Amino acid sequence: MFNFEIVAGETVRNVLHGKRGDVLGIVSSAYRAHEAGDSVNPDSYFLRFPDKPDSRIIALPAYLGADVQLAGIKWIASFPGNTRIGAPRASAVLVLNDYETGYPIACLEAASISSARTAASAAVAATALRPDGFEGTRIAVVGGGVIARNICDYLNVAGCAPDAYLVHDLDESSGQALAGHIRTTQDRPASFTADLDAALAADTVVFATTALEPYVTAPFRPGQLVLNISLRDLAPEVVLAADNILDDVEHCLKANTSPHLAEQRSGSREFVTGTLAGVLNGEVKLAPERPVIFSPFGLGVLDLAVGAFVLGEARKDGSTIEVPNFFGETRRW
Q1: From the centroid of its chain, how far is CA 183?
Q2: How many domains does the chain contain in total?
Q3: Which of 58, 183, 202, 211 is most buried, judged by most C-beta within 10 A?
Q4: CATH number, position 80
């Protein structure tokens, strides 16, 4: 009951690197459990700074039942300025709590967990929303950072096999690095383009940027799939001209995300087609004459599910770090 363990970032990365297929299944199951009501996923809480408007630290508390039976919280910082010194934008920890007693049982480095669950979410959506597969198509990735790299890795594991990738980033060196990573890891054609319009014309467009405001104003064409992972790239008129699949309606329609702006513009939620779990359960049908946009706000239950898996795998190979006497008092009297 009073054991407390640390799972360091290297251990987290080692577990996730060899278990992407497992993570895809875990994320899919967590979506279904959340849709079925076997979870508690309150609003995320944003700590913002007046002199750093582009930076924030977010708290994501959650409880997930099913076969996880844990509560917890992810505390994740997003400081885009870090990229100017060659450091990752995001850093995070995940605290897991025992559901029976409420006691914290572990703290995990969670930037890797967060990027893995985000990438797995994109890959689960890609396979569900383009069920005929990706042969004969191109995937464009807008943004060349850590999240984009993970998305491409998970798309590959999920069996998304396009004829080629196109990468666009305002920083050419980042875009070229991602294109090189795809060529090396997937043995698939991948090239950089400085032309945003060329990227937006691809059959599947993945947004993984740090954009704070919309800059894409032209609607997508029928048959295009858009993975709106960074949430703020698309103008409201783009969203309103598509079928829209969200991870959770209440969560996504806030904080001036593109779907939230669309709600404000239209005055209703009629543009929301359904949730990804609804698609996975066969309850949501898409219109072939419209593009499809998937917008995931990011649910804490996904972090819990992936974090619980990582903790279990780390325990199996003995790579957790136990902290003796972490709790100062273990008796009432």
Answers
A1: 23
A2: 2
A3: 202
A4: 3.30.1780.10
